[in-house]
């Protein structure tokens, strides 16, 4: 498979992720959109990494991204759980006490 | 293969001797977590004291690095990190800023059994900032930014109330999206160059072969992530909410450490994307537009604010804009004045938050309205607040004036050599905006002196605490940087930048 296919796939994933982040109202779904963007970047990293066989920088980058994404999801879900405790909803439109 | 492995191992072991501050912080995080568990049932600021001790040792080791480093940058850990005097200066700023923020203490309803977590998270932000100041590799940049961000999301919700959690979730979602976008930009740059070492000349040489449009998209995506961290114009939306609802010591900390860490990265990043001045895009003009937007949005939104912390949030956005002015000018002098401005900004912003915190705790004042007639309660307190506000506005006789003067001088110098008309617009814009900022900064002294107290004269409460003494020293430092800036300037001038 040519490397362009991977780039196109990752661009599509990025666009889907961006659309999800912008249009969806539920905080958890927005976090899912972020995961899509991170994985789009991962595909790019791994696809490019096959071009240099010695260094493997991209593959290691992808591994680190997976670890960081897990940490971010853990923190994110903890905060969203707190939000649910206070607001009884995870709809971002209804979480709007702070203004100005 | 064996020799290369041997070389790599030797490189790693020899790097360790330059890694002392980070080592101290890492061990400190573990110690504080243990101490937090042990001290849970005990009264007294044991964990805070331990955290201060660790930060003091960190600053000491940073100072030792400053002493032993020569002109040439050191490459550590297979050139993942690069240590030069500029990085050490940033690290000293981060250490000092955190030390002052930790002095402010963490009190509140749930504070007694959360001391360990709170201080451990503070230290992990400092660790991220230390690594970011040295990062020479895209992987290192990503990890340190995430280390700063994830700890910051948690610290934001440490108020343990409705507002603080809401600010936390907003910060989290914006921050996660911004770092995702930055990561995607990094993956493009990796695709263009096949290398993650962005500080190598080969990286820039590869970038020069790329077409303008993909190059612009890749650089803009990464720049977006950095602009989020420094809360500059299109990515500033999270700042006011977070600053209003997070605990005040955390806000003082946020306004200095993560923001200046973003600038430490931005300095390197702009050097790279300029491609030795051969970039098809004129980054000076682009940054000039961003700086103008940032200063204007910050200043004009601050005019309407009633809450003091929210006002200071917009003021810190405006200050990001002024720091960006140095990035636009982009010369040796501009970088030195950026470091000077950063040092003065650290002093005046933390001093402002120390007194805001004091008034919030002992009087319950949160709005500008509450400050009416404060001068009748305590004259020394009012004088100190007035000096800080004058310094934030950038008027003499304070360090804020010297810093702004230096930044705009360097911008003027760059304009006369490079003839970029955006620089002239930025200059005019910045100077008129300084006048606008007077309205909201001086509203606090105006309320304190000329308005009658709301119902009764506020009682004079005990002013003698360690924090207020610290604030007093910082006010003196602000005056000192106006009358004798040469001491600080001499230190900064020994920092050299590679262009």
Write the layout of secondary structure elements.
The complex is a heterodimer of chains A (100) and B (499).
Chain A: H1 3-23, H2 27-49, H3 57-87
Chain B: H1 2-16, H2 20-38, H3 46-68, E1 74-76, E2 81-83, H4 85-103, H5 115-134, H6 138-156, H7 162-193, H8 201-208, H9 212-229, H10 238-245, H11 248-273, H12 283-302, H13 308-329, H14 332-362, H15 374-377, H16 379-393, H17 399-418, H18 421-441, H19 443-450, H20 466-483, H21 486-493
Antiparallel strand pairs in B: 1-2
Helix pairs in contact in B: 2-3, 2-5, 3-4, 3-5, 4-5, 4-11, 4-14, 5-6, 5-11, 6-7, 6-11, 7-9, 7-10, 9-11, 10-11, 10-13, 11-13, 11-14, 12-13, 12-18, 13-14, 13-17, 13-18, 14-16, 14-17, 14-20, 16-18, 16-19, 16-20, 17-18, 17-20
EC number (chain A): 7.1.1.-
Organism (chain A): Fulvivirga marina
Membrane topology (chain A): Multi-pass membrane protein
Short description:
The complex is a heterodimer of chains A (100) and B (499). Chain A has helices spanning 3-23, 27-49, 57-87. Chain A is mainly α and 100 residues long.
CATH class of chain A: Mainly Alpha
Report the C-alpha radius of gyration of chain A, rounded: 17 Å
Residue stretches of chain A low in confidence (pLDDT < 50, at least 5 long) are none
**Which pair of protein chains has the largest interface, and what are the residue counts?**
A-B, 45 and 42 residues
Helix content of chain A: over 70%
Largest sheet of chain B: 2 strands, antiparallel
Largest sheet of chain A: none
CATH architecture of chain A: Orthogonal Bundle
Question: Helical segment tally of chain B?
Answer: 21
Principal-axes shape call of chain A? elongated
Number of helices of chain A: 3
Query: Can you write the helix and strand succession of chain A as a string?
Result: HHH
Main location (chain A): membrane
Membrane topology (chain A): Multi-pass membrane protein
GO molecular function (chain A): NADH dehydrogenase (quinone) (non-electrogenic) activity; quinone binding
GO biological process, one term (chain A): ATP synthesis coupled electron transport
